[in-house]
Every structure is written in structure tokens, then in C-alpha cells.
């Protein structure tokens, strides 16, 4: 019978069942937790083992790094000592080589002195022979001999009509009977004949033939017997003695004369003198023969004797006076003594030679292939080709000097920085500067512009060509300069220069002469003929190529 007691009993049974189920679930959850804890304990043990192994490996690596650093420090100290020893040895070798070169120079001077003595003795012997010949000729002058005769061709003066004229080479004998007086000999011809040690009558007759075949035009001209090299050296010394103190003043003097000349002659550049109408031969001769004559127009004398022409001397004097006048109205460099008038005269003479050279290139010449003189159009076409080649050569020369100056500035800046830091490779960079100065602008490698594409855009790059004549190891030294230049460029702002890539193609630039033998490619020198080797003019100066760790040349 159901009642309150029964209900409580049923509730108690239901609670008991519920707790039994909850206990069963709890036991099951505990088993799962125990399994997870076991798994975590195993993972923790694995991680602890791995960590201990990592710690041991890290400790071992630290020991290895410390040992490596110690060895590197020892190697660096050894390298510095070795580098210093090498530089000392190179200095000693350089000193010994200099002493050997001095000894060689003394030997060469002795040999040269002996050659001079031999030459002097040979001249004495030749003078004695000439004296004997003159004495012998004077003894047999009364004996009848066949007259010597020579032949002169007019082909040079009248192309296309070959002809021979027979001339006596001996003076005509004095007639026994009274006859017409002996024709007078022009004093200029007599002076030339005396200087050439020939008979004046023979030279006069030859001049008569020249006038005959050249339509009455003939001159006696004799070149200077002085050495051209000595004369040029003397002029250079005289010019240097009156030159301004600074390069800026030298440039200013050149600009003064150039501006005045262009204004007076109505030109804009030096090549405009190609079409200059020079003074005629009659005008030049009339001016030279008249002491009271004056030049009223701006014209040069571009004849063969233009360097000693009285006409040109007067024109150059006028130009210098005009330049001085304009300078007095301006900064007054001449008045202040900063630029001397004599220096302006030297510049004017040099400019005249350049203008005349341009003009000469465009004058008709004899064309052997066509057996005739060039036409005016042909001469202009030929001259334009020459001017184009000259411009390209000038462009190449400017590029050479720009590259040399760029490399020189890089090396000089590196030396300055390393002097401040007290770097151990400072001596190597100073040696690099010595090498660069020896090579000069002519020793720089060629560069050719090569188009390239970078990230879809066209960019300009330069391909560095190889110098076949140059010692190959020098290319490694120049790479050091390239690396240092790139390092400096990373520190700069603004537009970056075009990249330069070293290739394996040889350039075509002319070989610089007069360098030490160590800077030339030994295999290339061996391939030259004796004549070609002589033209290279290898210097006797000794220059030992330095030894350096290339990877340690930078910062």
C-alpha cells in the first residue's frame, strides 16, 4: 500500500541509482584522465631528454665557436705579421731594383759616351776624307773631263705629261775670251746653296726649271737643321716659365684667346676654320715686303710656311692686343700680372696650328687610286670622316680620364678612412694608389654600353672589356676598387650610376707605352716582334706587384 514511506523509499532508490551512475561516470572519467596524464608524462620525459641533448649540443657548439675564434685571432695575427714582412720584403726588393736600375743607367751612360766618342771619331775621319777629295779635285780641275749631267722630271708639277729635262751638275767653265758677264745669283739662293754645300749656279738653274714648269712660281725653302724634339722641349719650357700659377688661370687664358678669335673671325667653334678663306700668296708677300703695310681684315695665312709668316705674326699680335683690351675692361688679369701677355701669345700660336690643321684636312689632295686631284666635295667628305674619328677618339679619351679620376678618388678616400681607423691593410691601399698612378688614364679598361632589362624595364649597363696587353692579376686589383666604389655608392642618396659588369671580351684600345715590364702581360710581350717590342718602349722602372688578401681589402 502506497504511502509517504513508500514514496521516500522510491526516491531513495532513485537517488541511489543516480549516484551509482554518477560514480560509474566518475570512474570512467578518472581512467581517461589517468591515460592522458600518462601520455603527458611520456611526452614530458621525451621533451626533457631532447632539451638535455640540445643543451649538450649547444654547449659543444659554444666550445667549438670559442676554439674557432681563438684560431681565427691567431690566423689574423699571423696574417698581419706575414703581411708586414711581405711589405718589408717588397720595399727591400724595390730598393735593390732601384739600385740595379741606377747601375744600369750608369752603364748605359758609359755606353752612350763611348758611342758619342766613336761618332766623333767617324766625323773626324769623314772630314779628313772630304778634305782629301777637295784637294784631289783642285789638282785635276784643269784636266778635261766629261761634264756631269742630271735629269729632272716634271711629273711632280704637271701630272699626266711626263717629261725629262737635262741639267748640268757642274758649273760652266769660265770662257777664255771676254764675253757677257756672269749672271748674278739671287742672294737667298746663294745662302741656301752655301748651307747645302752645293754650287749656287746649279741651284739657280734648277730654280729656273722649277719656275718654268710651275707657271713662274717657285720658292727656295730650307727646313731647320735643329732637332724638332729639342726645339719643342725648349718652347714648352719657355711657355711654362710664363704660365699662370693656377690651372683655373690657365683655363681662363685659353678661354680669353678662344673667345676673341671666334668673335673677330665670325666663328663659333674651332672646326669652323675648315671653311676659312686664307690670305692669298700675293697678299702675304706684299705685306712682308712693305714695312708700312698693315692688315685690315681678319685672315690667316695657311700656306706651308705659316709658322714663320710675317702676316700671321701680325694677326696673332692683333688678337693678343684685342684680348688684353677686353681683359682690361673686365677682370684685368693681365693688368694685375696674373696672366702674362707672353702666355697669351703662346696660346694664340697653338690655336693657329690647330685651326690650320682642321683647314688642311679639307683641302683637295692627290688621289693615287684615281690618278687625279680630289674634287672639293671629295675633300670635304674625307675631312668629315677624319673629324668624326677625332671626335670619337676625344670622347674615348674623356671617358678614360673620367674612369681614372673616379678610381683615383675611390682609392684616395679609402686611404683617408683607413688612416683614421688605423687599419692593418693601409699599406696595401697605398700600394694600390701607386699602381693606379703608374697605369694612368691610358691604362684603364674600355667600357661599352649594353642594353638590359630589369623587372620589365630597360636599363643601361656597361660591359667592362679586358685589356689583352695588361698583366691579368691587375684585373683582380681593379675589382677591389669596384667593390669599394659600390660600398661608397650604397652610402649615397640620389640616382645610382649604371651597373658595370666585367666580361670576357677583349677591347681594342691602343696599348699605353712606357710602363714597367711587370704591368704588361708576359705572354703578350713574348708574342711581339722585336720592332713591335721596341715601339712599346717598356720602362726600366721596377714595380713589384703587391700580394694582398683580396677578400679583406674592404671595410
Write up this protein.
60% of the residues lie in helices and 7% in strands. By secondary structure, the chain is mostly helical. Among the domains are: 149-170 and 187-220, no CATH class; 243-361, no CATH class; 401-552, no CATH class. The strands form 3 sheets. A 3-stranded mixed beta sheet has the order 5-6-7, with no helix packed on it. The longest helix is centred in the N-terminal third of the chain and has 136 residues, at 4-139. It is elongated, with a radius of gyration of 46 Å. The N and C termini lie far apart (108 Å).
Task: Describe this protein with a few key phrases.
13 helices; disordered C terminus; 3-stranded mixed sheet; 7% strand; 555 residues; mainly alpha; 7 strands; two-stranded antiparallel ribbon
SS field, number of helical segments: 13
Write down the overall mean pLDDT: 76
Beta-strand share of residues: 5-15%
Structural class from helices and strands?
mainly alpha
Region (Disordered): 1-27, 134-157
Biased composition (Basic and acidic residues): 7-27
Topology:
Layout: H1 4-139, E1 149-153, E2 164-168, H2 187-196, H3 200-213, H4 228-241, H5 247-265, H6 281-289, H7 310-329, H8 341-361, E3 366-367, E4 372-373, H9 376-421, H10 426-439, E5 447-454, E6 457-466, H11 473-490, E7 500-506, H12 522-526, H13 530-536
Helix pairs in contact: 5-7, 5-8, 7-8, 9-10, 9-11
Amino acid at each position: 500500500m502506497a504511502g509517504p514511506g513508500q514514496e521516500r523509499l522510491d526516491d531513495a532508490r532513485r537517488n541511489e541509482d543516480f549516484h551509482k551512475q554518477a560514480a560509474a561516470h566518475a570512474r570512467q572519467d578518472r581512467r581517461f584522465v589517468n591515460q592522458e596524464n600518462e601520455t603527458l608524462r611520456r611526452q614530458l620525459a621525451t621533451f626533457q631528454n631532447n632539451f638535455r641533448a640540445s643543451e649538450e649540443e649547444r654547449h659543444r657548439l659554444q666550445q667549438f665557436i670559442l676554439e674557432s675564434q681563438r684560431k681565427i685571432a691567431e690566423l689574423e695575427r699571423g696574417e698581419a705579421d706575414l703581411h708586414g714582412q711581405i711589405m718589408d720584403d717588397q720595399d727591400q726588393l724595390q730598393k735593390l731594383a732601384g739600385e740595379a736600375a741606377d747601375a744600369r743607367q750608369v752603364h748605359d751612360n758609359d755606353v752612350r759616351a763611348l758611342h758619342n766618342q766613336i761618332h766623333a771619331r767617324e766625323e773626324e775621319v769623314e772630314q779628313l776624307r772630304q778634305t782629301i777629295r777637295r784637294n784631289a779635285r783642285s789638282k785635276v780641275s784643269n784636266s778635261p773631263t766629261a761634264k756631269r749631267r742630271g735629269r729632272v722630271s716634271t711629273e711632280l708639277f704637271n701630272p699626266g705629261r711626263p717629261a725629262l729635262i737635262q741639267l748640268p751638275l757642274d758649273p760652266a767653265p769660265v770662257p777664255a775670251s771676254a764675253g757677257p758677264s756672269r749672271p748674278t745669283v739671287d742672294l737667298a739662293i746663294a745662302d741656301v746653296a752655301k748651307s747645302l754645300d752645293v754650287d749656287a749656279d746649279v741651284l739657280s738653274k734648277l730654280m729656273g726649271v722649277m719656275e718654268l714648269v710651275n707657271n713662274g712660281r717657285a720658292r727656295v725653302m730650307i727646313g731647320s737643321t735643329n732637332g724638332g724634339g729639342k726645339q719643342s722641349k725648349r718652347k714648352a719650357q719657355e711657355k711654362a716659365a710664363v704660365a699662370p700659377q693656377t690651372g683655373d688661370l690657365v683655363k681662363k687664358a685659353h678661354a680669353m684667346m678662344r673667345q676673341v678669335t671666334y668673335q673677330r673671325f665670325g666663328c663659333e667653334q674651332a672646326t669652323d676654320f675648315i671653311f676659312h678663306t686664307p690670305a692669298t700668296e700675293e697678299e702675304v708677300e706684299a705685306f712682308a715686303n712693305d714695312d708700312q703695310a698693315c692688315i685690315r681684315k681678319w685672315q690667316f695665312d695657311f700656306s706651308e710656311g705659316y709658322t714663320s709668316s710675317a702676316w700671321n705674326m701680325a694677326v696673332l699680335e692683333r688678337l693678343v692686343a684685342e684680348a688684353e683690351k677686353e681683359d682690361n675692361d673686365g677682370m684685368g688679369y693681365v693688368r694685375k700680372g696674373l696672366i702674362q701677355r707672353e702666355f697669351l701669345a703662346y696660346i694664340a700660336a697653338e690655336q693657329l696650328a690647330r685651326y690650320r690643321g682642321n683647314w688642311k684636312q679639307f683641302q683637295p689632295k692627290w688621289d693615287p687610286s684615281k690618278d687625279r686631284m680630289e674634287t672639293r666635295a671629295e675633300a670635304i667628305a674625307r675631312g668629315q670622316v677624319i673629324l668624326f674619328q677625332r671626335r670619337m677618339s676625344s670622347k674615348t679619351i674623356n671617358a678614360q680620364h673620367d674612369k681614372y679620376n673616379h678610381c683615383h678618388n675611390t682609392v684616395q678616400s679609402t686611404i683617408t678612412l683607413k688612416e683614421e681607423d688605423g687599419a692593418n691593410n693601409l699599406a696595401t691601399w697605398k700600394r694600390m694608389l701607386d699602381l693606379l698612378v703608374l697605369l694612368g688614364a691610358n691604362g684603364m679598361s674600355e667600357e661599352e654600353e649594353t642594353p638590359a632589362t630589369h623587372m620589365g624595364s630597360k636599363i643601361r649597363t656597361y660591359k667592362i672589356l679586358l685589356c689583352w696587353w695588361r698583366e691579368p692579376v691587375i684585373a683582380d686589383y681593379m675589382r677591389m676598387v669596384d667593390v669599394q666604389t659600390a660600398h661608397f655608392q650604397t652610402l649615397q642618396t640620389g640616382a645610382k650610376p649604371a651597373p658595370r659588369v666585367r666580361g670576357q671580351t677583349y677591347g681594342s684600345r691602343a696599348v699605353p707605352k712606357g710602363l714597367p715590364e711587370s704591368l704588361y702581360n708576359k705572354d703578350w710581350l713574348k708574342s711581339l716582334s722585336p720592332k713591335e717590342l721596341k715601339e712599346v718602349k717598356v720602362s726600366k722602372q721596377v714595380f713589384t706587384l703587391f700580394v694582398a688578401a683580396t677578400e679583406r681589402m674592404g671595410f
